[in-house]
Specification:
By secondary structure, the chain is mainly alpha-helical. The longest helix is centred in the C-terminal third of the chain and has 35 residues.
Length: 206
């Protein structure tokens, strides 16, 4: 448990820890997309990171049941923690598909998606650090970037699926790609969810 000088639970620091873990997970996923090894070989380490994220989220929820005074509304802290956890879950779920769908390769769409997710997670971490310093007005610059990256995720999914139906191959192969692209796009949506909550916090506290 993280405490501040007054002995209270440092929820903002815990959120930063969660965002840091999520960024590391995104970077590991990018390594899986960019490297020469089969992507599924990265599953175990990403599963460990996902478990760590779950532990931090549990720590936050447990702490909210123990204290009366929090730096933000309880609902905001719960939502931020939960949506951050959803991003890490999405990264883990994406790498898992390489395993159970037996996808032994990557392509440019997957690589581009990994860059979008890393960029989103970088902006989320910076935003949470600004939140801990009460630099609310500076947060919006990063939420705008996250929203733009989510739009890029939408484009990648559309282009990827269009290519599947324009140049169809084996139906099982095409199903695997469509399933993966949609899960990756959903992960960028979860990043946007975090950005949306941060923007609502800025409106109330700035």
């Amino acid at each position: 448990m993280i405490f501040n000088k007054k002995g209270d639970i440092d929820f903002l620091n815990l959120l930063i820890q969660s965002a840091e873990n999520t960024l590391k997970g995104a970077q590991m996923f990018r390594n899986a997309m960019m490297g020469d090894k089969p992507p599924a070989t990265f599953y175990d380490v990403l599963k460990e990171m996902e478990n760590k994220g779950d532990s931090i989220t549990h720590e936050i929820f447990k702490g909210l049941n123990k204290v009366f005074i929090t730096p933000l509304d309880r609902e905001d802290i719960m939502e931020l923690a939960s949506k951050l956890d959803d991003v890490m879950d999405g990264i883990e779920a994406s790498i898992a598909r390489f395993d159970y769908l037996n996808i032994p390769f990557t392509n440019q769409y997957m690589k581009d998606f990994s860059e979008v997710i890393v960029g989103s997670c970088e902006h989320m971490l910076t935003a949470f650090k600004l939140l801990s310093k009460k630099k609310y007005m500076q947060i919006r610059e990063h939420t705008v970037h996250i929203n733009s990256l989510e739009n890029e995720g939408d484009r990648l999914m559309r282009e990827g699926i269009r290519e599947i139906f324009t140049n169809p191959k084996d139906p099982y192969h095409d199903f695997k790609l469509k399933e993966l692209y949609e899960r990756l796009e959903e992960t960028t949506d979860r990043c946007e969810d975090v950005a949306d909550i941060l923007e609502s916090v800025v409106l109330r506290y700035a």
